Amino acid sequence: MNTVFALWKRGLKAFVRNKTGLVFSLIFPFFFVYVFGAIFKNDFIENPIAYMLSGVIITTVFESALNLASSTVDDMVSGFMKEVLVSPAKRVYVALGQLLSAATVSTLQGILILVIGLFIGIKFTDWKTPFLVLVSMIFIGIVFSGVGLFLATKVRNGQTFQIVKTAVTMPLTFLSGAYIPISMLPGTLKFVAYFNPMTYATAFFRMIVLEKTGLPISDLIKEGLVVEINGFAITPFMTFAIILIIGLVFLLLSTISFVKTDFSRLNRSATDANALWG
Amino acid sequence: MNPIIQVKNFTKKYGDFVAVNNISFDVEEGSVFAFLGPNGAGKSTTINTLCTIFEKTSGTLLIDGKDVSRQKGEVRSAIGVVFQDSTLDAKMTIEENLKMHCVFYNIPNREVEERISFVLNLVDLTGERKKMVSALSGGMKRRVEIARGLIHYPKVLFLDEPTTGLDPQTRAHIWEYIMKLQKERNITIFLTTHYMEEAEICNKIAIMDGGEIVAHDTPYALKKKYTKDKAYINTKNEEALELLLSEHHLDYTKKDGYYKVEAEHLDRLLEVLSVHKEHITNIEIKKGTFNDVFLEITGKKIREEA
Lengths: 278, 306
Fold this sequence. Notes:
The complex is a heterodimer. By secondary structure, chain A is mainly α. Chain A has one domain (2-261). Helix content of chain A is 73%, strand content 1%. Chain B is α/β, with parallel strands linked by helices. Chain B folds into two domains: 3-223, Rossmann fold (3-Layer(aba) Sandwich), CATH 3.40.50.300; 228-287, ACT domain (Alpha-Beta Plaits, 2-Layer Sandwich). Chain B contains eleven helices and 14 strands. Chain B has helices spanning 43-50, 72-78, 94-104, 109-122, 138-150, 168-185, 196-199, 219-226, 238-247, 267-275, 290-298; strands at 3-14, 17-28, 32-36, 58-63, 66-67, 79-82, 156-160, 188-192, 204-209, 212-217, 229-235, 252-255, 258-263, 280-286. In chain B, strand 1 (3-14) and strand 2 (17-28) form a beta hairpin. The longest helix of chain B has 18 residues, at 168-185.
């Protein structure tokens, strides 16, 4: 258990120490709020800034959690994972520590934007909402940390990984409804969006932030707060179940894959032992 | 003497390629053991398997009586590993790196402070404790890694080319630490190196080539067996010298005006020559080096020094 805590602390320290990264992680969300909030001022959305902010918050949580992939790949390239490999530390605990630290960091980033958001457009009327928002962020943070860790264990080349990561996360965020409502997407892209886990996370989170959980399903559809596939509405409960299942699957896959991964293999061929020892 | 590392009939194959072919050797507790060999000889595969990173194909590998493939946890607790490439966490301080290591190795909290002071003192880094690893020089990083490899008091310390890429002064220091360790804590040190003069300081040397151990002995015995001392002689009277050498059955080759005589013991040559000093204008004696041993055994030069 000490291993889990130590790695969690390590992740937090790295987050706090990276001041430049922190500033930039705040600049982009508000840039998006400004740009897209101005573009999508339409009649369906009563509070465009709050609508955009909720999308931006969850996108930040998502991207920050997926960043676990990058930091784990960095740990492999820098050799730190090799040190873990030859230590008696249980790999499951290492995986758990990494997941929890990524989930915590992503939640913290989400909270930072949320706090600023409270001054520029988000309003909570129910005392329960902040708790629900927090729990959702942690939940979604853990789910996508699992996805991130899974990706990291499949990486064979640290340099191409960064490009692949951007190529994957960019479309996923843009096709999630966070910036552009799904209903405004053309048919093919809409179809892609239905397979995007982020779509469900966004709809779910937005519904909670905008305090629309009590609304009947027809109103939720109208405001774009639930996903509707060919007239079939995915209820909030089903949305939650979908995220939960995706989360469980990836947490399981990533942990198994992490335990089995040969970290010394990165960027080097497995048959060439000399590459490992020089 | 008690063998701390026991390798018996160890074979490792990658598909059809045999990287290590049925090798056996022991390392005595408290000794400094050097593993030499050209690249691709199989020494890396052997060390990686001993460190529980690779799986063996067949054979038995024991460290402190524990099987490296079946008792991984115990073996990992019993060994310290310093890789050639840094495995430190550059974004953390020296102290944080050491603390993290203590967590991985289940060191009781109350002992952590004392152990950190002890190992940092050992490698002269006490004052650097709060520095970020990214700000350290190559030599300092290597010292931190050695300190870290020792903090859980391993029985065996694996050092993969501990001095490669370091300047001569730092290299000498690193060796000082290694020798101090062996003496004070009776730690067994298993290392690879490309510097022949470093191999000579070790108690035992194993040379690998083509997946097999081609020589395994003390540096002295290897030198005695595989090298000859050489004498280069200059003379005013070539005829007289040639006659003298052949009279005493000493083979010679003539090159650039020098007579080169090779012999296992030059004592006899010197005796002969001292009687006929008047023939000799200059004599230079070269002792056999470990490079010669290596060349003789593997037929290859050790990797060009970086």
